[in-house]
Amino acid sequence: MTACETSPFAVRTQRTGTQFVAACSGEMDLTTCELFFAAVLPGITDTATTRVSIDLADVTFMSASGLRSLLLVLCATHYNGKSFDLCDVQPTVRRVLDLFGFTTFKAGLVWEATMSPKGSRH
């Protein structure tokens, strides 16, 4: 059995005004990251959206692949001039985020260090 068969993953999205919210449930791992990113991408590229929020209240597990997907979403929202936040993170998932430093860095610093064109660095 795969992780999808034992623990289904789902993403419900909603835009209210200028905020796009993706509410995730289940396990965020290698088998579900593509679904997650595909669900969030419309909110990132929507010109009427200024904030992308990821609701992790019902996420029961997060692997390194899930963490990588969150980092990609963070960078993409920053690149598109939007703010990003996580909400309702469960303690087990918060621990993974904390262990990898996800909850302590600033998006702008990560973007400058890793993604911005070399010509624009100071």
Structure, explained:
There is one protein chain. A four-stranded mixed beta sheet has the order 1-2-3-4. The termini are far apart. By secondary structure, the chain is an alpha/beta fold. The protein has five helices and four strands. The protein has one domain: Transcription Regulator spoIIAA. The longest helix is centred in the middle third of the chain and has 16 residues, at 64-79. It has helices spanning 3-6, 33-45, 64-79, 91-99, 107-114, and strands at 10-16, 19-28, 51-62, 83-87. 41% of the residues lie in helices and 28% in strands. Helix 2 packs parallel to helix 3 (64-79) and helix 3 crosses helix 5 (107-114).
CATH superfamily (homologous) name: STAS domain
The percentage helix is 40-55%
CATH topology annotation: Transcription Regulator spoIIAA
Series of H and E elements: HEEHEHEHH
Number of strands: 4
The poorly predicted ranges are: 1-5, 118-122
The major β-sheet equals: 4 strands, mixed
Instruction: State the separation between the terminal residues, measured CA to CA.
Output: 50 Å
CATH architecture assignment: 2-Layer Sandwich
Tell me the quaternary state. Answer: single chain
Please count the helical segments.
5
Average the pLDDT over all residues and give the rounded result: 82
- CA radius of gyration: 14 Å
* Count of distinct structural domains: 1
CATH class: Alpha Beta
The shape, in one word, is globular
Which class best fits the helix and strand makeup? alpha/beta
Q: What is the beta-strand fraction?
A: 25-35%
Which strand order spans the largest sheet, edge to edge or round the barrel? 1-2-3-4
